[in-house]
Every structure is written in structure tokens, then in C-alpha cells.
Amino acid sequence: MFTRIARRAFSTSKVNPYKVTILGAGGGIGQPLSLLLKLNHKVTDLRLYDLKGAPGVAADLSHIPTNSKVSGFTPDNEGLSKALKDADVVLIPAGVPRKPGMTRDDLFSINASIVRDLAKAAGDAAPNANILVISNPVNSTVPIVAETLKKKGVYNPHKLFGVTTLDSIRAARFISEVEGTDPTTEHVNVVGGHSGITIVPLISQTKYKTMDKTTREALIHRIQFGGDEVVKAKDGAGSATLSMAQAGATFANAVLSGLGGERDVIASSYVDSPLYKSEGVEFFASPVTLGPDGISKVHPVGDISSEEEQLLEKAKETLKKNITKGFAFIDKE
Ligand SMILES: NC(=O)C1=CN([C@@H]2O[C@H](COP(=O)(O)OP(=O)(O)OC[C@H]3O[C@@H](n4cnc5c(N)ncnc54)[C@H](O)[C@@H]3O)[C@@H](O)[C@H]2O)C=CC1
Ligand SMILES: O=C([O-])CC(=O)C(=O)O
In which residues is NAD(+) bound (predicted)? Predict the structure, then answer.
């Protein structure tokens, strides 16, 4: 079931009408993500917002004969609140991407305030929305959104998601390259967070648990640092956009499937999680069941090897720092 839902970026079934807003829709991720959501028949009202450029993207997409209306907004004439008004799903890819030599955490100084301000607007105009955060550093931007919404009294932990789907799709692709298999049939459970060592792929849960140590360690490293491959190849022109758009559209479709009452919709995401809260890790990525009210269940990581236990411990240490940094940013306001 996980595989069926998680791999589908768009659906052709007609179900409930949904309003979906993309904040940062004119950017490298925003444009292809907007296209993929224009192709999703679950979306009937697609709102695109950016500092500039979104009306052009909307006009372009509006010629595609799918059943959604598309509108573009800029900050003029209260465009942000109009774009957000009563949205069911809000995706946030607004913010700056990495350049070679930077970590995702280096983006905090610029992206933290962008995400905070967009979260404030979402809290006012779409307090019931499911919010899907793409902007990096996800490990910190998700806690920033949570704290911002808490301050407004509209925080619902079941409706806030850090989008980590790109880690899952990379893991499927990379393991298929190692094993010489069809990537569309592969699935790797990836837990933790979304940066470097906080990304923990659980190879022991795949059918390749006997993979030799050197191959396995190289594979884990590639999944953890897959983003760097793209940053390096783009050579200053940004980070993953097209694979991220595919990942974002796939995850958004899973959320919409859950809202529409489909059963057993399970996908991984970085969420307000009970799993390691007692250890001070308030947010953690693991599979979640998605339903009409957002997350209905957070699944544990399951059985893991002693090697993965060690990776998990290291991930939790870094996550704690990333989360605290996000909380502190809002607390000092
Ligand atoms: N979660 C994940 O797996 C991934 C996350 N990312 C992150 O996504 C973010 C966006 O990346 P790209 O699309 O490549 O960057 P980009 O620079 O191409 O596009 C970002 C867009 O955000 C807009 N923007 C900036 N401030 C805004 C604001 N206050 N309101 C509305 N729009 C605003 C910009 O005008 C621009 O159009 C980056 O932070 C990047 O690190 C990228 C890849 C994967
Ligand atoms: O690497 C980056 O900066 C963008 C990102 O999050 C990814 O590609 O996983």
C-alpha cells in the first residue's frame, strides 16, 4: 500500500474538490510542482504565490485542460492572504537554495524568517490547512512553523509536515542501481530528518539485508548526501528542483488521498512525533498514516540493526540541536 500511494505523483480519479496553495510557486521547485499539481485531478483550485512571477506561471498552466482553476498572486492587493484563504493544503518551497560548499543549516539565516512570515499568514487565512514545508533547513523550518502557529493558537500537530519524500525516492533509485533492479519496485524506509547524518535509511528492512558492509555504507552515504550531488552538478545554480517537485507532488497527493478518505495511505514525513519526545526530539521523520484530519498515526521505525541503532542515535543528537534552533528563533521574538 505504501508503495502504491507513495509513487503516484498525480491521480486521475475524481473525488472531493481541494484548494491547494503553493508559496514560492515561481521558483525552481515551485514551477514544476505547480505543473504536477495542475495535473492532479484532486486539485480543483490551485493558487500560486510568489514575490513575483506567479501570475505568469498561473496563466501558462491555466491553458492545460484539467479540471482546476489556477490563479496567480503577488504581495500586491493582499495577494498572500487571498492565495491562502481557506486552503486545504499549503506547500511551502519559498526560500533560497544551497550553493556548493554550503550546508542546509547555512540557509537558516535567510529562510527562517521567510518561512515564519508565510506560516503567520497561513495561520490567519487558512488555520485548518495541512502545511507541507519544503524550504530548508527542514529540520528547523518545521519547528518554526509549529511555534508560529502555536503563538496564534491554531497549531494542529496532525497537519504539519516536513517533506522528506525526496530521501525516500532517492533511496529507491540508488538501491536499484546497486542491485540492478527496477527502481519502481523498490522501497526503503528512511527515518530521522532531512540533512546529512539525520537521514537514516533502514537497509536492514529491505530484502537486501545481506548486502556487504562496504556497499551498504556507500549506499547509506549516497542517500544521506544525495542533495550534494545535485548542488555540485548545478555548480552555483541551486539544488534539486525537478526531483523535488516530483517528490512534493507525490507527497501532496498522499495527503489529498488521506483527506479524501482513502484508507491505508502511508507515507514518510518529518512530523511532531511521539517516538523520541521523551529524549527531547520533538520532530522526527517516520511513516505516518494520512486521513481526513491529517496524520492519524505515527508509525515507529520498526526493527533495525545495531549499525542502524548507532546511526539513529547520531541523528537524534543533531536533530535536537536543529529543533532547538528553530524554537529559539521564534521564542526570542
Ligand atoms: N525538502 C526538500 O527535500 C528540499 C528542499 N529544498 C529547498 O526548497 C527551497 C526552494 O528551492 P528552489 O525552488 O530551488 O529555490 P528558488 O530560488 O529557485 O525558488 C524559491 C522561490 O521562493 C520565492 N520566495 C522567496 N521569498 C519568498 C516569500 N517571502 N514569499 C514567497 N515566495 C518567496 C522566490 O521568489 C523564488 O521564486 C530551498 O530552501 C531549498 O533548499 C530543495 C530541494 C529539496
Ligand atoms: O540539498 C539541498 O540543499 C536540497 C535538498 O534538500 C535536497 O536535494 O535533498
Answer: 24-30, 50, 111, 134-136, 244
Residue 212 Cα, ligand 1 centroid: separation in angstroms? 38
Q: How is residue 242 written as a grid cell?
A: 525537478
- In ligand 2, which atom is closest to the CA atom of 228? 1
Query: 68 and 187: one domain?
Result: no
Q: What is the CATH number of the domain that holds 242?
A: 3.90.110.10
Condensed to tens digits (0 to 9), the pLDDT of residues 273-297 reads 999 999 999 999 999 999 999 999 9
Q: 12 and 60 share a domain?
A: yes
List the domain range (segments joined by +) for residue 275.
165-331
- Ligand closest to Cα of 84 equals 1
What's the pLDDT tens digit per position in 98-139? 999 999 999 999 999 999 999 999 999 999 999 999 999 999
179, burial (CB in 10 Å: exposed 0-12, middle 13-18, buried 19+): middle
Distance, in Å, from the CA atom of 270 to the CA atom of 253, rounded to the nearest integer, reads: 16
Whether residue 104 has its Cβ less than 6 Å from ligand 2: yes
Say if CB 35 and CB 59 are below 8 A apart: no
What residue's CA is closest to ligand 2, atom 6?
A: 227
| Model-level ipTM above the cut of 0.85 | yes
Is the Cβ atom of 245 under 6 angstroms away from ligand 2? no
For the CA of 167, the closest atom of ligand 1 is 3
Specify the pTM.
0.96
